[in-house]
Each structure stands twice: as C-alpha cells, then as structure tokens.
Amino acid sequence: MSRVYYVTARITTRAAAEEAYAHMQAQGLHMHVATLTAKDKICFKDENDCDAGACSLCEGYYDRINGAVSDILANETLMTRAVIERYARKHRVCPFEFSLDVAYASDGIISDYNYVFDPRMSLKRLLEEHKRKGVVLVDEAHNLVERGRDMFSADMSIKGYSSAIYFSATLTPLGYYRDMLGVKEEDYTLQVASPFHQEQWDVRLLPLSIRYRDRERSKGAIADMLVGLAEEHQGNILVFFPSYPYLREVYEEFVHRNVHADTLVQSPGMTEPERDHFLEAFQSGQERTLLGFAVLGGVFAEGVDLPGDRLNGVVIIGVGLPQIGAERDVLREYFSGQERNGFNYAYIYPGMNKVLQAGGRLIRTEQDEGLLVLVDDRFAKEPYASLLPDEWRSYRLVEQAGLGKEWTDYEF
Q: Which CATH number fits the domain that encloses residue 61?
C-alpha cells in the first residue's frame, strides 16, 4: 500500500492541503485522507480527565473502534478534524486515538511535522514496509529548521520512506537550506519562477532604524506613517512587528492620534476561534480602513490566504532578526568554524525568511495588486537587499515628515 504523508507546521497550511485534496477529489481522485490534530486540541474532555478509567470514551474503546473506523471509511474520503469529531461522538470513542486508527487505514495523512520527524511522536505503528512505499511532502519546509531543533533530534532524515519532497516559496538562500535540511549532493533541486509580476507590487521603503536601541525614537514616526496609510489607502492592511512589546508600543502611539480606522491586534496564545475572528474581519468592500497589528513569524505571517480586496497592503517593520542569545551565538560560532558566515546562518537568514513570508501574504493570485511598505534602513543594505525578491527591489523612498535632516546622509 502506497501512502502520501503531507506534513506541515501550521493549522492554516493543513487547511490548504485539505482544500487541494477536495479539489482533486472533485476531479475524480479517489483517496481516503485523514487529518491528524494534536491531542490537546481535539480531546472532548478536560486534560485532567484523560486518564484510564476517567473517560467514558476511552473505556471500552476497542469494543467500538472497529465499527467506527468501518463507518467513516465507508462514507467519507476527506476526513478533516470536523468529520473525525462527528464520527467520534457518534460511536463514543476518543477522537485523538480514533484519528490515529483512521490514519493508519488511509491512503493519505495530513499532519504536523512531528508525526514523521519527531522520534517521540512519530507514527510508531507504521510498518517499515508501508514506510518504504510512502512519499513525504514537507510543506513550508523553511519551518523545519527551527522545529527540528525543538525535537532534540541529532539530525533530520529525508529515513525509511521511499522519497521526500521539501517545498516552500521562501527557501532563500537555497544553499543555506540545503545545508540545514541535510540535502545531499545527489538530491534534486528545482526552482520555479514566480507567477507574479513586478507591476502587481507597489513597494515603498521607509529607512528608519528599527534597531533595539532606536525603537523608542522610531515608534512615533511609524505611527505617523500608519496614520498616513489609513487616511490615504482605504482597504485592509496587515502590519507586522518584530515583537509583541514593540507592537503594543506603536499601537498605543497610533490610537492616540484618533485616526478614522478600525484595528485588530494579535495577542500571544490566541485560541483558534480568536485567530479565525481576526482573519474573518478582512473582508472586501469595507467602508473603513482596517489595520491588523501582528508579529513577524506568527500565525498570521504565513499560510494565510486573503486574496483580492481582502488584503490591500502589508507593512513589515524590521528585518526579523531573532533575539540575540546563547543558543544563536553557539550556532554562529559553529558555522563560522565551518567557513560560512556564522552571523548570516544564525540570525540574518532566519530573520529575512520571516520577512519574505509576511510580504507573501499580499499577492496571492495573478489578479492581486497591493502596497508593500518595508520599514528599516537595512533593507537597502547588504546582505539584506540581495535577499529580497526581484519584485520588491524597485521601491520608492518614503519621505517621512519631520525626519528630513536625520536622513540627509543616507545612501541607497
């Protein structure tokens, strides 16, 4: 039996995989595909009740599971979280264990990276024979670098499966990701040109210093720029910040200016309904400008599709550098010892990937057009400038009121 394992890092991209399967099934594909959801999210009970003898859905589970699996496979082909929950309630079985049993009986599995790469959570009941016939599709593969470190795994391996395909729109620079993902010399690499055109992007650069030491000075100027955007560009705009504290500081400056616009603010630890509410607010044809304040590298910065007039502009504040710390410095020293640029590997490349992902929310179809504002003087300097997509490199300089003298010596 051949099986396709579609693994990703975010719930939003799992939804995209389900949509793709649904589209193919509408064209005649016949596959049973199951989505795996984390236990703490799909469990019907409180976490403390998930104990032997404490949960009625676990008691007698093996008396009811065969009928439950047979029922869902006979009547469904795309078994999303909602479908699995419905059948779990119908047959009174644990939804998490049920999803695993359904997955083992399916042709395709949509799941988090952990179910393939994490030795503590991988699909342990999967026979080696099935692995050898399976294909792993790794979506948004740039995320696998950081996630791999969180798994405390010695290495990451393309192991036991027939083949693995890693893909992402932001595997830039490619040499860095080849090194980090363990790509071998004989492995095949394919780069596909962007389907979008430079004319779809209206790119502006506001050359402020967003370095930590200058943030107190820059937050007022950023708030002024956002007020100008809200007044001049009616529509929906996402504004991405390097951190939650800086987001809150600029947001407070912005609201004190009493601009005629609606706002939404991302907060740490948002629930799925809260995240859905945030995204659902971005609708076309609204009378007032809407600004969504979010963080680089967060749930709204990748895997989110807001096509057409659901999103008219994106503002990216900062070059996304991770916070300086001992772990990052160890990485920098290691790669410097490997005759590579250690600072680029530990800080710049991961940071700029967040920038590319956030900016990628703007143009989702060949008909989309929008405004992209890059706020940081480093975007015009190397190595940051060469890491920008070709479509972003022709930009107009934003002249910020009150900052003229400060930037007279700035060179582009």
A: 3.40.50.300
CA atoms of 377 and 375, how far apart (whole Å) = 7
Please tell me the pTM assigned to this model.
Answer: 0.84
Q: What is the pLDDT of residues 72-108, one digit of tens each?
A: 999 999 999 999 999 999 999 999 999 999 998 999 9
Residue 349 and residue 376 share a domain: yes
Q: Are residues 70 and 149 in the same domain?
A: yes
For residue 163, give the amino acid letter: S
Burial code (b: 16+ CB inside 10 Å, e: under 16) for 357-388 equals bbbbbbbbeeebebbbbbbbbbbbeeebeebb
Do 49 and 154 fall within a single domain?
Answer: yes
* Domain contains 320: yes
Q: What 3-state DSSP class applies to 189?
A: coil
Angle, in degrees to the nearest 10, between helices 95-104 and 61-75:
60
Domain end, chosen from 180, 208, 233, is at 180
The pLDDT tens digits for 136-185 are 999 999 998 888 777 765 555 676 778 889 999 999 999 999 988 888 88
